[in-house]
Amino acid sequence: MKAMILAAGFGTRLFPLTIDRTKPAIPFLGKPLVGYVAEYVARFGITEFVVNLHHQPDSVIDALGNGEQFGVHIEYTREVPKILGTAGALDNARHHLEDGTFVIVNGKIISDIDIADAIESHRNSGAIATMVLKPNTKRERFTIVETENGLVKGFGDYATPVSGEELKDVEHDIVTPLMFTGIHILEPRVFEYIPRGVYSDIVPTFYNPALAKGEKIGAYVTDANWFELSTIPRYLDISLSMMGSGDVHFGRNCVLAGAASLKDSVLWDDVTIGDGATLYRTIIADGVTIEPGEHFENAAIVRADMVRNCTEIPEKAMKGYVQGENYIVPLN
């Protein structure tokens, strides 16, 4: 069996952390995020991978290489001149995937979902595809997947966020919405629904037409751990939850001068922290120098020259400002 990791996205909501790399190539606790995904899938005996590329493609290749360091073999497909969407990505990789059942995994997740169990469920169901779903107990902004008797029946709107007393009521609501985890298992017959040369997402191109035609789409529901690192606050929160409270992650070649105070922070490579500096809940990207006595809290920091040389700041990016030689993005 083969797996495809989706790694072509722009990572606009993670800007400026993605200013010189694509989202799956950002470091996560000392390893590229997409490397975690490769190792995770390989634990279930899947070692043949296809990885799609578009934005900052060399950053993914630099992160993964041929896959040997992660115990897998990787082939790449390139999407040019435009990004293709998931359906287009499959079309572009069909020569790698059309010889048997395959798995698709989003390149921006950290999870311990049992893919082997999901595959067994898929095979037992006789479905053309199986979506791995998770209860959206917090009613976060994910599309609702409608199911019945272990099968997907359709797709609703985004879940409606709730808080406070409303959340207590929702926790007792038996109709907790289900959301898609970015993991699905597909049969080669899906290519009958995907036209050649398509630029499209997989829901309108495959899932909706397949459901309309009466195809069985399996729904594998799990309560296993699953995190999506799609925004800077999510990236920080998930990093801290996996490190432990009060911890600090240091990348390679970091220099901590004097009596600096660091807590709940993530430092990438080649970072210098000056004497008397204070960091709390802060992400420091490659090559940043924090001057002596500076204080930062709930922020992401990159070198200002990287932003100055950037042709365009994405609309979805969190707003930041230049301070000295650094570009600061408040996370509040």
How is this structure best described in words?
- The protein is α/β, with parallel strands linked by helices.
- It folds into 2 domains: 2-228, Alpha-Beta Complex (Spore Coat Polysaccharide Biosynthesis Protein SpsA, Chain A); 244-330, UDP N-Acetylglucosamine Acyltransferase, domain 1 (3 Solenoid).
- The protein has helices spanning 33-42, 57-64, 85-92, 94-97, 115-125, 165-171, 202-212, 232-243, 304-308, and strands spanning 2-6, 27-28, 31-32, 48-53, 73-78, 102-106, 109-111, 129-135, 143-148, 151-158, 178-186, 217-221, 226-228, 248-250, 255-256, 261-263, 265-267, 272-273, 278-284, 289-290, 295-303, 321-323, 326-330.
- It has a 7-stranded mixed β-sheet with strand order 5-4-1-6-11-8-12, sandwiched between helices. Strands 14, 16, 17, 19, 21, 22 and 23 form a 7-stranded mixed β-sheet that branches.
- The model has no long low-confidence stretch (mean pLDDT 94).
